[in-house]
Amino acid sequence: MKPTWIRLWFSAAIGLGVSQVALAEDSLVDERVKDELKTSEERFVITPHKVNYILPYTYNDNPNTDPYTNFTTNDDNEEVIDNAEAKFQISFKFPLWYNVFGDNGHLYFAYTNQSYWQVYNKEISSPFRETNHEPEMFMLFNNDWQVAGLTNSFWGVGAVHQSNGQSGSLSRSWNRIYGTMVFDRGPFALGLKAWWRIPEDEKATPSSPKGDDNPDIEDYMGNFELTAVYGLDEHMFTLMGRNNLQHPNKGSIEFTWSYPILGNLRLYTQYFNGYGESMIDYNHHNQRIGIGVSIGDIL
Q1: What is the 3-state secondary structure (H, E, C) of the chain?
Q2: What is the pTM of this model?
Q3: pLDDT in tens, the chain (299 residues)
Q4: Which of 108, 264, 271, 285 has the fewest CB atoms found within 10 Å of its own CB?
Q5: Which residue, among 16, 5, 13, 92, has the nearest Cα to 41 in the 3D structure?
Q6: Where does 2-295 sit in CATH, by number?
Q7: Which residues are catalytically annotated?
Q8: Which residues are bridge partners to 159 per DSSP?
């Protein structure tokens, strides 16, 4: 039974995005599963959820200065948000209950932290510009449907809260129920994730601390995303597209490439173009490119 748990454990490690559960000869996850089998009995091992990475240098061609106007101006009343900043993500999860429904259905808790750090901006004391918190609870079901030459390896459902932990005019948050399915074949995998936002009450006044801080967030952050992964030798390529078909011009894409450099450490590059890279930027279009390292990467 343990190998099945580890396969599902790995599937959860990529945030219900993309993976290959079956241990086929050409499987993208073969080595990862073997590694997790080796450490499955280690009490203090932390299992990743989404990609854990640090990008010491990223460049954003259009920083979102509007939310910070009252906080980040110098003596000449000039906005001083830098184009260059560091970005990192820490993500982990752990199982709560295996085989909830006999021999299937596995319950997990996960947490992801994503931060944007104005580390080179000495003029305003190098603050953390934005930090997003994302706890979630989800259940995975292993599956073996064959669809158009692909295997539907698993499907899942979950609930997620995402916020930036701020108050007043900087506060951003939303809660969602989501479903996901993953299809794979050899070195290729495709994940579909769709969600429904849990409604919130409207604010009584714009400055009210209660109520919805971002009622139009779905227009920009969408209600579904597609993620594709392709492994070529030791190279790993991912492409994510997120959208709301009612507002097709307000979506986003993210492309990453990684390559192993030392042990589990991989050279990691990331390119983002669109809306909703972070909560504070949900309605702001930006284009960012960054380079750094990841630990283990998505697979």
Answers
A1: CHHHHHHHHHHHHCCCCCCCCCCCCCCCCHHHHHHHHHHCCCCCCCEECCCEEEEEEEEECCCCCHHHCCCCECCCCCECCCCEEEEEEEEEEEEEECCCCCCCCEEEEEEEEEEEECCCCHHHCCCEEEEEEEEEEEEEEEEEEEECCEEEEEEEEEEEEEECCCCHHHCCEEEEEEEEEEEEECCEEEEEEEEEECCCCCCCCCCCCCCCCCCCHHHHHCCEEEEEEEEECCEEEEEEEEECCCCHHHCEEEEEEEEEEECCEEEEEEEEEEECCCCCCCCCEEEEEEEEEEECCCC
A2: 0.87
A3: 333 433 443 444 344 333 333 333 455 534 554 555 455 556 666 778 899 999 999 999 999 999 987 665 555 445 689 999 999 999 998 889 988 999 899 899 999 999 999 999 999 999 999 999 999 999 999 888 898 888 888 899 999 999 999 998 899 999 999 999 988 888 888 999 999 999 999 988 877 888 999 999 999 999 999 999 999 999 999 999 999 888 888 999 999 999 999 988 999 999 999 999 999 999 999 999 999 999 866 54
A4: 264
A5: 5
A6: 2.40.230.10
A7: 161, 163
A8: 137, 177
* Residue owning tokens 């309605």: 283
